[in-house]
Amino acid sequence: MMITSAEFVTSAVRPSQYPVSELPEFAFAGRSNVGKSSLINTLVSRHKLVQTSATPGKTRLVNFFCVNNTFMFVDLPGYGYARVSEEERRRWRPMVEQYLSGRDHLHAVVVILDIRRSPSAEDGQLLQWLERRDIPSVLVATKSDKLSKTAQRKQLTLIADALEVDPADIVLFSSKSRLGRDTLWKRLTDMAQAPPEDERA
Ligand code: GTP
Ligand code: MG
Model-level pTM greater than 0.85? Predict the structure, then answer.
């Protein structure tokens, strides 16, 4: 995908702060520190559009980005980091659930996993939550640069078994080497053609 523009639109805590948009929208969700913000930067070929950090809990709001004036990307705060305060955790669920249940043009949620780890209970819960609401998801296993090819295959099988999906459906990704960028873009552009949730039968 050739990127002609990628712009920060706004940050939101509640629905009244969301931008009005009819563009096909994709949200990026996953554990804290898994590499969501880095993955967006890789997709849009910008090093610093989205702030990333080695410290978990960097993204704390729902952040909207407009890409090529064609797509809206939404970076969500991560879940599951033990050291995030109790108050932070209490805020996370309504903020993310309200977003996910309230966007008419949300075409899919990219659920990002660390290829080195077994999926957490929260990863499984998020997928089930999306499935129950007929919101399509795309599974991505990132940080693949940290494993050998053999170990990648082994982990993909393990992750697919745990989540009861086909390993071939998981996009192998690395924000460092850019592996999987084209594959993920292809999935997203295909999904942008399909009607979003509210128009589904
Ligand atoms: P929160 O906003 O805190 O939930 O984190 P996040 O999921 O947005 O993660 P972020 O993109 O900020 O990345 C976290 C750390 O992982 C940073 O130090 C990144 O440089 C690193 N990282 C992200 N993706 C990759 C990758 O594909 N390979 C490698 N080696 N490091 C990565
Ligand atoms: Mg982030």
Answer: yes
